[in-house]
Amino acid sequence: MPEVLPCPTADPSQAARNLDRHGFCVLTDALPSGIRAEMRARITEQAIGERKLDAGTDDGAVYLGGAGRAERANRRVWALMNKGEIFQQPLMQADVLQLVSQVLGPDFLLSAIQANFVSPHDDPLPFHSDQGYVTRPWPPYSLTASVIWMLDDFTEKNGATTVVPGTHLPQEDDDPNAMMVRARLIRKGGIPICGPAGSALIFDGRIMHGTGINTTDATRLAVLTYFCRPFLRQQENFALSVAPHVLDTLPDSIKALLGFQVWKTLGSVEGVCAEGAIVERPQAPTGAVNTTGEPLYVGAT
Ligand SMILES: O=C(O)CCC(=O)C(=O)O
């Protein structure tokens, strides 16, 4: 008998049981509507400004191996911490943080915070696991967890995130039968995870997921918070400890050792940078901008 998949719930205890059993859950009423409206307005303004500045990214070039058409790719607004105080809010929602800690343990780090627009008829983001860069065999626990904050209703028609149930379970990687089952599941496609605006979709970082196709005439917007276990970082925080004048003198080989080289998307700045790129502090304006691309000093006193 096919397994019954979890429904959105406003009850954090039920959400916790769903997450435990299925590797994902939807908690409704996770963000008050005022916060949601403010986030939406700020992201929309920022996205228009970033287009003017030719900043921000379209997934097509990055995730679709260059095959995606930029005009039909999901649009991202990265590094939201710099782009408005309102983006601190998702990091303060206790019920959702509790669900993240159910996946990652009591201590975890924010690995990225960004917005994703799925516009009508965008190419879907292909199925992937958010810890896909980890060498297999994986440990029997998740190394990452994600929360997708629905700023719009997520529906079957507007590009709701799709997940492939069961793909978070430990895989017998060397077992050809298990690999075939997994491949079949992925080919069959995922199921759209629907929920009303203000819901949070929380999932185990191993689960295969992607974006759906938006066949409506309105854009679907979400904020994505991506978390990882606290040991997924270096002991010394070189981004802060190495003085800028010293950094300028270092050869790329040493910058790479210090963590200034992008590896499988990790270590990127303001979007997913090319594999192997040596990253630098971006030139201004990198923070909040208005619709004409001029800096907005959000958070300044
Ligand atoms: O926006 C979405 O629905 C999913 C995005 C996603 O899967 C990702 O960024 O890894």
From TrEMBL:
SUPFAM superfamilies: Clavaminate synthase-like (SSF51197). The keyword Protein biosynthesis does not apply. It holds the Pfam family PhyH. The keyword Transferase does not apply. InterPro entries: Phytyl_CoA_dOase-like. Gene3D superfamilies: q2cbj1_9rhob like domain (2.60.120.620). This is Phytanoyl-CoA dioxygenase family protein.
